[in-house]
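Researcher: Go.
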Amino acid sequence: MIEHSNPFTHQARLARIAELVPEGSRVLDLGCGNGELLALLRDQRHCSGYGIEINDTHVRECVQQGVNVIQCNLEEGLGLFEDNSFDVVLQLDTLQNLRNTEAMLRETARVGRIGVVSFPNFAHWPHRVSVLKGRMPVSKSLPYQWYDTPNIRVATFRDFDQLARQCGLKVLESFGLHEGQEIRRWPNLRASTAVFKFERG
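Model: Structure:
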């Protein structure tokens, strides 16, 4: 699921994520939303694969775009897929909504040769300022009030680095995104979204 606040920055973000996926890859997109990223990967990078989505409306939108989609709950794991079934497994803006984050990350690494994860970066400087003022942040990347958010947890770049090591994963690349721009310098402070590309260690 990817934020849609500004159409230009949203498309720039999709394009940057798509660049992490080698052409011709077999892709699994966990929490694929309306399937627009899978459609882009199919049309522009000649990829194939499936999306996993629980929302009825999004599943219908995937079907309308000709995207292969399986409706199921990610909390139940990925037992329907064998080891190394995919070249790339995408988990974009879903990690923070899952109860068993570590298990899903291990499953991502099991079924795919490469994993790509993105999530809202809680250490982004406006979020830090909000917390210093005594309030939970509300922003484009974290658009909900604390009492009605679907996010079960929040995380930072350093948090994910630690979890990746704990799961035996090797981080191949990490960077931040903000307003459609890639952030390489001080991403934990300057980026609203964290992006990691990894493989089994």
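Model: The two ends are 27 Å apart (CA to CA).
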